[in-house]
Amino acid sequence: MPKNPTSASAAPPEYIYGRRPIFEVLLAGKRALHKLWILEGSQGGLVEEILRLARERGVPLEWSRRDRLDRLAPGHHQGLVAQVSATQYLELEDFLGRLGPSESALLLALDEIEDPQNVGAMLRSAGFFAASGVIVPRWRSAPVGQTAARASSGAIEHVPLIRVRNLADALLTLQAAGFRAIGADVQGAPLWTLERSARTVLVVGNEGRGLRRLVRERCDVLAGIPRRGKLDSLNVASATAIFLYEYFRGMEEVSTKI
């Protein structure tokens, strides 16, 4: 029997802040909002829509002074802070069980990404390009918390998160389910030269070290972005956005030829 998403029932609630992240939590409806603090005098635009959705869902509201919000949120909160239930994760087996026998999918796998800003930016790209899910290792990776949620501009609420114990083993499971693993590597062949697969997992490595040895070896092929200038690399989040764009552009070209 499939398990429920692993939000870890014992996990404490989280705090998120900023208008867009809170709006997306309300819009997606995946997580419960336990309370919403609003800066006194806030009104108009997205704030009004957030208040409308919060009232519809029975979220307790508290109008607060700025110093109260500053204590709740470590960053620029834009006058809004919310306490929400913990981030939900899927087990890999459950995700695969939901795929139809011939259903295509693109997954993004993060191999020990350490900066939560990068994690958030990569989730934002995955959400923009409608990736099927993002795989996050359980250990030795940046937490998918406040910072990542804010950097994702709400994408974290719409992109399925899949948590695995061992990424190298997860790649074997995916390959057995028909996925082709493409590892992002500066020495790899240009992505646009590679044959497209209906089921693909794009594996992106650590900001400094890149892919770990065993993860690299488990990939079916390595793909890179050819350098034109003097700099030898891109920020991992920027490179991920380019990879995702190129992958979907190539898939569209394939579909138009059929």
Determine the number of helices (DSSP H or I, runs of at least 4 residues).
9
| CATH architecture name of the largest domain | 3-Layer(aba) Sandwich
**Shape label:** elongated
Q: Determine the fraction of residues in helical runs and give it as a percent range.
A: 25-40%
Low-pLDDT runs of 5+ residues are: none
Percent of residues in β-strands:
15-25%
Highest-level CATH class of the largest domain:
Alpha Beta
Strand order of the largest sheet: 7-6-5-9-8-10
Describe the protein.
This protein folds into 2 domains: 14-84, 60s Ribosomal Protein L30, Chain: A, CATH 3.30.1330.30; 92-257, Alpha/beta knot (3-Layer(aba) Sandwich), CATH 3.40.1280.10. Helices cover 36% and strands 22% of the residues. The chain has 9 helices and 10 strands. It has helices at 19-28, 45-56, 66-72, 92-98, 116-128, 146-151, 167-176, 213-218, 236-257, and strands spanning 14-17, 33-39, 61-64, 80-84, 105-110, 133-137, 161-164, 180-190, 199-204, 221-224. Helix 6 links the parallel strand 6 (133-137) and strand 7. The longest helix is centred in the last third of the chain and has 22 residues, at 236-257. The chain is elongated. It starts with 13 loop residues before the first strand and ends with a helix.
